[in-house]
Structures are given as structure tokens and as C-alpha cells.
Design goal:
The chain is α+β, with helices and mostly antiparallel strands. It is built from six helices and 16 strands. The radius of gyration is 20 Å and the shape is globular.
């Protein structure tokens, strides 16, 4: 698909696509990136890359839902043989682009691929049809952006002293956090987080680092838990989304975008 045809595809869902030079700090191994940009007219989809790198990739429109303002884009890189898929659309108040971790060929398939297994299992238990499963609020879950909240059906023993108040949750990478009125974490692996180690070090990795660099002990580390069970109750707030209120405990689950290799080509995070 030629870039002018791609621009018309975005126009058909009420969006703008602009091709721009790549930002030096946002280069990717595939030579291009997708971003959400802003100008005096509002938001637009930004396809960033130089003439050479963009000539090495082929863009195809796999599917479009004009009424819902969503489209599924395929990007093929002939050199690496990679085939990346991106779901582009409008969610509540903002445009978004999400890397899809599957071989989806329709918008609905892409949305399902982004749901974690417990969400799909909850849908099946509640016998949701396709229309119901594509809403943000149904019998199986509530959704706010990339976060899903699934009602807890089995008794959950909560230690009130361990409930965190107005706690942020974030996928990382500079994304804007969602603020949870009451949050409870259980299990998971303790990791040590520092600006030089934003993904966290396990206890063994942390101990090995201190053996090599004893002064690192005085760095401003933050102890966190990797892959814990996370539960939320009360209001969930975010600047780009309507506030939702959970009257009972819900399991907190992030979408599956992090499993897509093409996520490295996204510059926009929430």
C-alpha cells in the first residue's frame, strides 16, 4: 500500500496520518516507528522513518471498522521477514496504537488477542457474545485503557494493613499511571528497581551487583514485586479515560501488547 493510500485509510476513520522524520532518541531496529503526535489541530498518527527505511517496509490494511474508528495494519519487512500488526483506533477520548501479539486478520481478532487469558476465560464463563465482549463494561470485566479489572469470584483474604491507598499502576516506559483508590498485592518476586535498572534486579542479581560495586548499596533503590497478584477496589482514575468505580475487589490484568515483538516500534505509551 502506498503511503497516500494509507493516509486515506486513516482519513476514513476520522484520523490523520503524517509521515515524519524519525526522532533521534526513538530509533528502532526496524527503521520506523508509530506514534501519536499533537499539533494545533489535535492528535494525529505519526509514522516516523527516513525514505530508505520506509522503502524497506510494506504497509497493508487488513481490516477496518469505520463506525468504531478502528483499523488493523500489517507491516512487512522483507529483510527481516517480520510481519507486524498494529491496531489503530479511538478509545473514549484519545487515539491509540497497540502492537498485536498474534496473526489477527480482523479488528475483533486483534482486540481478543490483546486480552489476557483470565479475561477470555471470564468472558466464556459469562457466555458473552462478540458484541458484549467488545464493550468496556460487561459481566466479565471492566476495562480502562490497557488495564482489565475482573471481578473476584472466590473468597479473597485481604490484610487491611497491606492495602495501598491511591496507588499508581503503570506498564512502565514512561506511560502515564492509572491511580487506584485501593490496591492489594500478593505473591510475586521481590526485585530491586533503580533508574539504571528500571526492569528490576532479582535478589541474586542485586547481591552480585553489590559484590562488584559496593557503593551501589547507597543508590536510591525501590523494592517492588514482579508478577504479583494485584487486586483493586474503589475508583480508578486516568487523565485520558473516564473514571470507573469498583465496588468489590477485582483482579488487575494488563493487556498482552508486551508480548508482541512489534511493540519496539511504538513510541507512544498511553
Amino acid at each position: 500500500m502506498k503511503l497516500e493510500h494509507l493516509e486515506r485509510a486513516f482519513e476514513s476513520i476520522g484520523a490523520r496520518l503524517r509521515v515524519e522524520a524519525p526522532a533521534r532518541s526513538r530509533g528502532t531496529s526496524s527503521g520506523y516507528s508509530l506514534d501519536i503526535g499533537h499539533d494545533r489541530h489535535g492528535q494525529f498518527f505519526a509514522l516516523r522513518g527516513d525514505d530508505v527505511s520506509l522503502a524497506e517496509v510494506e504497509f497493508s490494511l487488513l481490516h477496518k471498522q469505520k463506525e468504531n474508528r478502528h483499523l488493523l495494519l500489517l507491516v512487512k519487512n522483507e529483510d527481516s521477514k517480520r510481519k507486524d500488526r498494529f491496531l489503530c483506533g479511538h478509545d473514549e477520548r484519545e487515539w491509540f496504537v497497540a502492537a498485536v501479539p498474534s496473526n489477527a486478520s480482523t479488528v475483533v481478532q486483534a482486540k481478543e488477542a490483546l486480552k489476557p487469558a483470565p479475561v477470555r476465560e471470564a468472558q466464556a464463563r459469562k457466555n458473552l457474545n462478540a458484541r458484549q465482549a467488545n464493550t468496556r463494561h460487561n459481566a466479565a470485566f471492566r476495562r480502562q485503557g490497557e488495564w482489565f479489572f475482573v471481578p473476584v469470584e472466590k473468597p479473597l483474604v485481604i490484610d487491611p494493613k497491606l492495602i495501598l491507598r491511591h496507588e499508581p499502576i503503570s506498564r512502565g516506559g514512561g506511560s502515564k499511571p492509572h491511580l487506584v483508590e485501593q490496591l492489594y498485592r500478593t505473591g510475586g518476586e521481590v526485585v530491586y528497581v533503580h533508574q539504571q535498572h528500571p526492569r528490576g534486579l532479582t535478589q541474586k542479581q542485586y547481591d552480585n551487583l553489590l559484590l562488584r560495586r559496593p557503593a551501589a548499596k547507597n543508590w536510591p533503590w525501590r523494592q517492588m514485586r514482579r508478577n504479583p497478584g494485584v487486586y483493586a477496589r474503589g475508583s480508578i482514575r486516568h487523565a485520558d479515560h473516564a473514571t470507573i468505580v469498583l465496588h468489590d475487589w477485582h483482579q488487575v490484568l494488563m493487556n498482552e501488547e508486551h508480548r508482541a515483538p512489534s511493540r519496539s516500534n511504538l513510541a507512544f505509551l498511553d
